[in-house]
Automatic annotation (TrEMBL):
Source organism, top-level taxon: Eukaryota
Coiled-coil spans in chain: none
Organism of origin: Lentinula detonsa
Protein name: Ubiquinol-cytochrome c chaperone domain-containing protein
Low complexity composition bias: residue spans: 292-314
Length: 634
């Protein structure tokens, strides 16, 4: 009975106490040596009823703290419309009396969360300098919950709030301010959107109501300065990018090599090894050791490296005495050289090219396909020149060069089409782009010759002769063909490319007979299509298979086919004359060899992994011998 009475009495007293306005002291910040350290509110979690005044005492020293309202989910961001004391700087050693900030609770039905928004020396919020008022003892929304959230953040918002907050308000900025104490970012008296940025540095006086306009103007001015500065930086950045982009575009043909070299030389160790290796090699370029792996142009046997660069300016592809193909190394551009030798330049080069998107799948495909085209496709006519020109009797013309390259271009595309998306599409498209840029370049070199010759898109070849280069090395007036001729030739080659690709595809999926006939029609000049002219045929006539979509035929609709077949167009592709008819005997074998070669190479490419196609060593991708069993067939 007595016990019950006491309990009731106690409850009554408790209710009475709760109804009264409380005053709660909270210490802001600590000292190095006290438990909890500098970054704390003490107590950090308490309950307070409506009308209670929380007196925050800035006793922690050295200290530069704030009491800023936030939300549970966004623990270190000033709450929009929340209260804020601004930063109060307490020097080391402390001051007397300590500045106080009185916060009155206006709504105790919701939890009030607050934190210190200081970032120096590290964000105080993430260090655990947070507090709650009227939070549940445990679970969601409790002090520990909020603390956990806070400790997972990396940053604190620096927005300046107001004296009036949500559920609690102050009526004055912290005070008194003994000497040594400084206020920063003093809040306005009425709620502002805490999403605003910038840490105000207005004086304590600006907290009075009348100065809110001044605050606004200052705030606007700051925003304007910030905006102007951002625009200025953006402008400088943009112009730098444009300049760099242009510089890179100029070096477009160097870029694939530069990037792949930079990639290979990523590790500093490797790069040093490479450079050490390069030096002696360059000085003894006449040793035949380095072949395809470290290709050197045969014309580059000059000992001094400066003359080497000059001779290399006209890269010509040739088969060396060792029977191996020497792919000309393009003279290194200034940029390539820098990227290769300086790790810093390489670092920034890779950074900037990445920024410009050169490492996106699309751009990478563009860069890689240039190497694939130049090193794998375009070298094939020269690699088996003797086979094509002596065995197949292809004349040394650009047309011959084109059909041989196109055969290999097609084989490579068969493999590239099988790359996973989006790579397959990019690779085929870009390989074609490089092929046709090269074709255009070569057509131009033939139709619009220049002396000295222009730097070629890929390299010079001796597979075909340019009939328009005068022997005396002097160009006559009017020897340049008009632009429309170049365009027309481009169209012709485009049609040949499409037609050949279609027939090869058809042959690939049907049978060897179809493939052989595609090869006979497209590669071997369709010799004998008009029947074989024997020595006793009367009268022995000159005949050739006329390719209606290529060569010299300019207007297929208007041509008299019969007459055209009997005319020597100088292309060198014609039926064997009666005294050479025994060459027809070897024709089926020749076709079989090419069909076998084609199927073998396609099967070989199929076995190469996608990664190797896209990143691997180019040497491994190169086409093999057409007749591997015949020694010295090339
Ligand atoms: C903290 O404690 C150490 C050793 O106990 C003392 O040397 C140092 O002065 C103290 N620092 C402060 C700020 O009291
Ligand atoms: C409690 O606070 C309210 C609001 O601030 C005020 O009106 C009231 O007078 C205070 N009561 C006491 C007992 O201090
Ligand atoms: C105190 O904090 C404010 C706001 O972050 C900052 O501007 C000021 O420089 C700090 N003062 C010191 C002495 O660290
Ligand atoms: C405190 O004030 C708020 C808002 O005026 C009100 O919703 C709430 O019920 C009050 N709390 C108590 C215990 O009266
Ligand atoms: C505040 O009140 C809630 C609910 O009334 C209680 O769970 C919690 O433990 C209290 N917090 C403190 C610090 O007393
Ligand atoms: C805060 O409240 C205390 C006690 O009510 C008072 O002594 C002090 O002057 C107040 N400080 C400010 C800055 O309002």
């Amino acid at each position: 009975m007595m016990m019950r009475f006491l309990a009731v009495a106690c409850l009554g007293v408790a209710a009475l106490v709760q109804a009264q306005n409380q005053t709660i002291q909270v210490q802001v910040g600590g000292t190095e040596n006290e438990s909890g350290g500098i970054f704390q509110f003490k107590p950090s979690s308490f309950n307070a009823t409506n009308g209670s005044v929380i007196t925050f005492e800035f006793s922690g020293n050295p200290g530069n703290h704030s009491i800023t309202q936030s939300a549970l989910s966004n623990p270190c961001q000033p709450l929009s419309g929340g209260f804020d004391s601004g930063w109060v700087l307490i020097p080391t050693g402390g001051v007397s009396p300590n500045p106080l900030w009185n916060l009155t609770i206006t709504d105790d039905s919701n939890t009030i969360y607050f934190f210190c928004k200081q970032l120096i020396p590290s964000p105080h919020c993430a260090a655990g300098m947070v507090g709650t008022i009227n939070a549940p003892g445990s679970g969601t929304g409790s002090f520990n919950d909020y603390l956990n959230n806070a400790m997972q953040t990396k940053d604190s918002g620096q927005g300046v709030g107001a004296l009036v907050g949500q559920g609690a308000s102050a009526s004055a900025v912290p005070g008194p301010l003994p000497s040594g104490v400084t206020l920063f970012g003093t809040p306005a008296s009425t709620p502002v959107s805490a999403a605003s940025s910038g840490s105000g540095t207005s004086s304590a006086a600006s907290a009075s109501g009348s100065s809110s306009a001044a605050f606004k103007i200052e705030y606007d001015f700051k925003l304007f300065t910030l905006f102007a500065a951002t625009m200025g930086i953006a402008l400088i950045y943009a112009s730098a990018l444009i300049v760099f982009h242009k510089a890179i575009r100029c070096q477009l043909r160097h870029l694939p090599r530069t990037i792949s070299q930079a990639n290979a030389a990523r590790s500093r160790f490797v790069s040093t090894a490479k450079i050490l290796q390069k030096k002696p090699d360059a000085s003894q370029a006449n040793t035949k050791k380095e072949s395809v792996a470290a290709p050197s142009s045969p014309s580059a046997t000059a000992s001094s490296s400066s003359t080497e660069t000059k001779t290399l300016k006209s890269p010509t592809i040739e088969v060396g005495e060792d029977g191996l193909l020497h792919v000309p190394e393009r003279p290194k551009s200034w940029l390539t050289h820098k990227v290769e030798t300086s790790p810093t330049v390489r670092y920034w080069f890779m950074k900037i090219t990445a920024l410009l998107g050169y490492h996106s799948p699309k751009q990478r495909a563009g860069l890689r396909t240039f190497l694939l085209y130049e090193r794998v496709c375009a070298v094939t006519p020269d690699a088996e020149r003797s086979f094509w020109q002596n065995e197949c009797d292809l004349p040394p013309t650009f047309q011959s060069w084109f059909i041989v390259t196109n055969l290999h271009f097609w084989m490579l595309t068969v493999r590239l089409r099988a790359l996973p998306e989006p790579h397959g599409k990019f690779y085929v498209q870009f390989l074609l782009d490089h092929f046709f840029l090269d074709i255009e370049d070569r057509i131009r070199a033939i139709l619009q010759p220049a002396i000295p010759p222009r730097d070629p898109y890929t390299f010079f070849t001796s597979f075909y002769v340019n009939p328009n280069i005068p022997k005396d090395g002097k160009l006559k007036r009017g020897s340049r063909a008009p632009e429309r001729l170049v365009t027309r030739q481009m169209k012709i080659f485009k049609e040949q490319w499409m037609g050949m690709g279609m027939w090869f595809d058809y042959g690939l999926v049907t049978n060897d007979m179809e493939l052989a006939s595609a090869i006979w029609r497209n590669l071997l000049g369709a010799r004998g299509s008009q029947g074989i002219a024997y020595p006793d045929s009367n009268p022995p006539k000159f005949r050739r298979g006329v390719n209606l979509v290529g060569g010299e035929v300019e207007n297929p609709e208007k041509i008299d086919l019969e007459k055209e077949q009997g005319r020597d167009d100088g292309s060198g592709v014609h039926d064997y004359p009666p005294d050479e008819i025994d060459k027809y005997v070897g024709y089926p074998e020749l076709m079989l060899d090419i069909v076998t070669y084609t199927r073998r190479e396609i099967a070989r490419l199929e076995k190469i992994s996608d990664e190797e196609i896209m990143e691997g060593d180019l040497g491994a991708l190169q086409f093999g011998k057409i007749r591997p069993h015949v020694k010295g067939s090339s």
